[in-house]
Amino acid sequence: MLDLANSHRSIRSYTSQNIDDSLLNDLLTAGLRSSSSGNMQTWSVVVTRDPDRKRQLYEAHRKQGMILEAPVVLTFCADVFRMREWIRINESKQSFDDLLGFLTGAVDAVVAAQTICLAAESVGLGICYMGTTWWAADQLIELLELPKGVFPVTSVVMGYPAEDPPLRDRLPLELLVHRETYKQLTDEEIRRLHAEREEKAWARYNSFESLRQRLAEAGIIRVTDFYTSKFKYSKELHREVSEMLIKTLRAQGLWL
Predict the structure, then answer these.
(1) For residue 50, is it within any domain?
(2) How many whole angstroms separate alpha carbon 195 and alpha carbon 117?
(3) Are 153 and 228 found together in one domain?
């Protein structure tokens, strides 16, 4: 398990080999054993195989080619609709139609997604999470016909790898792990602990000629410049998506 976790790579290129239904069901069943709040399992997953529907997802996710290549796309959702329907037919007091209900379901969904992804990698499949799920939440609700109380939180493409990319750089443990209480670092510690990441990430960005030219033309000379630029995660994008998410959470009955 440690070897599997430490060898994870995001796969963005896939062969045409399909995933057998029985194997996919085994992987999804593994997700059922994931931890969940109160064992309510307030999550759902929409499995997309149909080429036309994958094309629609491709458009919603800002045209990421791996969606069209991979045989399966999984959209994991926070789902309090199912719980509320169970409560309704038993005529019990209703709840969960609020921000806490959404956050509980979102955590359940991501925990289940990671269990399924690890199971998939253990049998030779490749996976890649798509952060654009948040960016396209309103579109995905419409495309996947999600009822009120259901909200997409992450998506995964899955298939047999057509590439063997090297391990990507990661931040040192000291930046992520705090012992007993949160430790705020000095400027010197921040620079020192980010140095290797900055060097490797900058070298990787510049290994792509088209990206290197765009960075140079935009006057971007640091990794942090890139992360907050129009090419990555600009403040304008964050503001636009944040406003859409609040509006869409309200429309789905999950912002009270």
Answers:
(1) yes
(2) 30
(3) no
